[in-house]
Amino acid sequence: MARFDTATSVDPLGPGRYSADLDPGYLVGQAMNGGYLMAVLQRAALRESSHPHAVASSFHFLRPGAAGAAEIEASVLKSGRTVTTVQVDIGQGGRPVVTGTIATAALDPDATPAYEAPSASVPPIDRCPRYEPRPRRAGGSPFPERIDQYLAPETWERLRHGGSDGGEGRVPDLCGHVRLSEADGGLGDDPCLVLPLAVDAPPSVITVFGTRSWAPTVELTWHMRAIPAPGPLAFRSRAHAVVDGWFDETLDLWDVKGRLVAQSRQLARRGR
To answer: Where in this protein does the record put region Disordered (predicted)?
Structure first.
């Protein structure tokens, strides 16, 4: 079994209650990656719904999550033939960590779009150098080892020279490809379950300004637009405003067939 499938599994404790054992391999510094927490909460929400796909999800991040035991509460707000909406909360030590609402439905894998905007000009994965994290020192972040990242040459240049001119002329617009680490067993059983992690896996757009520290997400909303074909996901992320310690990040994901499969938007703080 792929590490991701095991790391995001939840066990029932009773009606609407689940336990999870948060995998330390998904830590960014001392905090769990937000996309990983969303993936765990999605697993609980889908256990409560008769529909197989999380089509619209919105989360507020209240405090950093830690590795280890966590408890989840999931309650159905409305159950319907087309959409079932589930409220989910994850906490540790009696304190809330993330709260969210997930709308579930069933997407048709053979649906043909009536309209779809052209995908971003992301170079093929074989033209995108792989990001190889430096060997981890004690206390370092293991999360980069969970995701294979391939960054477009222009993105590499923006990250490599981030902050060298004080931020002037820097464009917070990145693209490349991501996939679950092959060393961890790859994609797992269902590529749809990976999407909440994937929308939060690429480097933060704020890194073009030289900010390499953790940039905590305050709120993130993402939409599933299609069932992804197995394989790497192409991404493009960009910010529209970086001001007063706050920034937004909009990200789109396409599968290997060029189909738009997910969109996200988040508001976050610049790391200190």
So the answer is: 114-146
